[in-house]
Amino acid sequence: MASAMQNIWQTDCSGRLRRLGMLVSFLMGMAVSLSSFGAKHINYAVHPKAIQFVDEMVAKHQFDRAALLTIFSRTEKQQSILDAISRPAEKTKPWHEYRKIFINERRVKQGVVFWQAHAELLARAEKEFGVPAAIIVAILGVETRYGQNTGSYQVMDALATLAFDYPKRAKFFRKELEHLLLLTREQNKDALTLKGSYAGAMGYGQFMPSSYRAYSVDFDNDGFNDIWHNAGDAIGSIANYFRRHGWRTGEPVATVATITADFDGSVINNRAKPELSIAQLRQRGFVGTETFADNQLASALSFVNKDGFSYWLALNNFYVITRYNHSHLYAMAVYQLSEKVKARYRKS
């Protein structure tokens, strides 16, 4: 009898524990679901900074308030965007790891295929803007794998998140959000349908909205500046961007350098526009492997390789590449990819 009662008690306790566990699991699931529901529906139509921005857009550019609030009611803060911008590859990877992302056999081959497919447009862009076809192709290769990966973030989410919830660069992204809304009005586009990078860059060449409005061109003369889907307009727009930022036709980009034992490390990796002459850099222990005029301005750069450092002298056109992305790692990746694609294309 005692044994039977014990079994009944154990069975009853076991059942209660199972039911209790099921209840706890259910309640935890409901909590997660409710949390997710709430997070999903928190939008920028009720954000004080966004409301202030809407007021300014109405007063400054005569936007319709109700229409803007409708857009912001469907625009949401994305933590993934804040996470991504806090750890860009240019700031977290050494050169030898960063380089492998962009300079590899697949991307070189794809660059040749793209060049072959758009050879006439690239030749015309080089002739009209003075920017080498190889550089244009390399920009497209580094930015979007020649238009194959233009970004999956909703641009409104990206720019609003960074404008209103990323104080470090809020001023910059607030201005880009303003340009985006002006751009969509000018081109009669739905702002909520546009996709791009976590920073709000769009299309083949990943132009920010302000760059789109300032530098995009209708290179195929179809009456519309389209760098989202039109490779020709993207080619012309990148060439125009580089020309407007000071590209010097026919001049080199960079050259490998050697250093002396007493080189001046304080001048390395200065991202500012080149200010020291070749002669001055030579005096500081940096000697290029190519011959340039002594008064040619350049910057000294170093890159971290697996087995130590490599040194380069970067000239004006290298600096112009950094106007597209300020990282010297980025600019070197563009330059080296351009050289590899060019060499392969000439053999094709």
List unreliable stretches of 5+ residues. Answer: 1-41
Number of strands: 7
CATH architecture assignment name of the domain at 48-85 and 153-217: Orthogonal Bundle
| Tally of contiguous helical segments | 16
Radius of gyration, in angstroms, nearest whole number:
27 Å
CATH T-level fold name of the domain at 48-85 and 153-217 = Helicase, Ruva Protein, domain 3
- Backbone shape: globular
CATH superfamily of the domain at 48-85 and 153-217, by name, is Bacterial muramidase
Strand content: 5-15%
Largest sheet: 5 strands, antiparallel
Strand order of the largest sheet: 4-6-7-3-5
Which descriptors would you attach to this protein?
single chain, about 350 residues, alpha+beta, Helicase, Ruva Protein, domain 3, five-stranded antiparallel β-sheet, two-stranded antiparallel sheet, about 10% strand, disordered N terminus
